[in-house]
Amino acid sequence: MKSLSAQDREFFELVESAGFSNPFSAQRHNVDLAIAGLEANASREKAIQSMLAQVNKRMHRLGDFKLRDFAPEDRQPLKMAVLFQLFHQFADHFDTHIKAQAEAGHKPLKLACGPEIIRALDRYGYTEVNAGRVISFFFQIRRAFTFLSRNLVGESRVMRNLRERAWGTVFTQDLALYERLLWNRLEDFSTFLIGETGTGKGVVAKALGQSGWIEYDVANSRFEHSFTSAFVPVNLSQFAETLLESELFGHVKGAFTGAEESREGVFKQCQTHGTIFLDELGEVSIPIQIKLLRVLQERVFSPVGSREQLAFQGRVIAATNQPVHELRADGRFRDDFYYRLCSDVIEIPPLRERIAQDPDELTNLVEHLVTRIVGGAEKVLSDQVFAAIDRLGPDYAWPGNVRELEQCIRQVVVRGTYDGDRKPRTQNPLTLSLLEDELDANQLLSHYCHAMYQKYASYEEVGRRLGLDRRTVKKYVVEFEEINP
Ligand SMILES: Nc1ncnc2c1ncn2[C@@H]1O[C@H](COP(=O)(O)OP(=O)(O)OP(=O)(O)O)[C@@H](O)[C@H]1O
């Protein structure tokens, strides 16, 4: 039985701790630098190249070997060094494949470097099945890294934290454990994205949804599905109640008037390890919440008009831009449903918080969005946008967040300027009156009692909540209704 020298073993253990930690964490970069023996300001690429050179040198000295030739305690660090080396050797090939697959759409393409990786792993004693799993793992890591870094623009602390959190959603805290045991067990882990409108919840959901596990088919040198079909978004606010149920769970022929053919819902369409994105979850009625809860808990659902139980094998990501705690307090969002989703709640930061943390955030985003909107970097346009933003003043709150920033750029393209979104964010008459300074204390109380009475439909309850007698509440409500017939 072979064994590693103490130095090699220590080095490979370091490689394991670096190579298998979250690439978006601050600690990761420091470990990379320490291993590579570089200065703190060296780039990530440089650190990885230097680390790779050292791994290659030590592996070369070991000559040809199978992992099983080594003592059990040496196998894990050595295996991680092998994976680290191969992953970086083929990273560019995976990038090319990701680009080609994104362009090709839902039909899975052949992975050109697949057979070569299988042969390389075979030299270390990997079986074909295990080598196929390594390819799935490499591909998933590369996708998650690419989608999270490329699509989530922003270097403010909150955005860096967001990428780090999102990586944890895909791979958990422990990538090595994920590789060994958890890769096919994450379907039960749902994610709830919360944040104001336009902050990028859809972008995060898509990056996560397209970064799930996809099985590699060794015999055909291709993945079983394309990552483009792994993400199924549904905007729940777009459908009337009856149609929504059918959209989600499907229906059988004759289930309701107009159901002339049976139809598959999105839960059926979702592939194994795929993701369903339930957007605008705050809009959903209680009966639909109960049905969704059943899918999350029991992983089965029935099409409308059928008793058949179908299995759901994907993962759920939900999102809302509504204040969840208020929805729960009002009884519009069930607690059991919330608890099912709350194990992984990710808050997407508003744009104003990002700008306050890092003034370059706006510059980076504008340049990114200008390139996306007009198809290339346009310095003159970017400068015009910056001038328009300056005119909004330093305290402008960006109520529509990144979506509003896109709108701002479009308006600068068309009109040369942007005036900002100054309308109050709520149409609530009480808030509007308050903003206009038009209420005295008596009117304020009468407005407030009326608003509360609309909500609780009981003078008793409103009185209890406001510390007023029920008769007083009634007096104010009647007064309000007389003035506002
Ligand atoms: N970090 C980001 N980097 C680049 N583009 C972004 C980012 N965040 C959001 N965007 C862009 O802003 C727009 C709005 O994003 P998105 O639709 O994901 O917001 P949302 O939070 O889901 O909004 P809503 O709650 O209204 O559905 C999209 O065009 C998206 O591409």
Automatic annotation (TrEMBL):
<protein>
    <submittedName>
        <fullName>Sigma-54-dependent Fis family transcriptional regulator</fullName>
    </submittedName>
</protein>
<dbReference type="InterPro" id="IPR003593">
    <property type="entry name" value="AAA+_ATPase"/>
</dbReference>
<keyword id="KW-0547">Nucleotide-binding</keyword>
<dbReference type="GO" id="GO:0005524">
    <property type="term" value="F:ATP binding"/>
</dbReference>
<dbReference type="Pfam" id="PF00158">
    <property type="entry name" value="Sigma54_activat"/>
</dbReference>
<dbReference type="InterPro" id="IPR002078">
    <property type="entry name" value="Sigma_54_int"/>
</dbReference>
<keyword id="KW-0067">ATP-binding</keyword>
<feature type="domain" description="Sigma-54 factor interaction">
    <location>
        <begin position="152"/>
        <end position="414"/>
    </location>
</feature>
<dbReference type="GO" id="GO:0006355">
    <property type="term" value="P:regulation of DNA-templated transcription"/>
</dbReference>
<dbReference type="InterPro" id="IPR027417">
    <property type="entry name" value="P-loop_NTPase"/>
</dbReference>
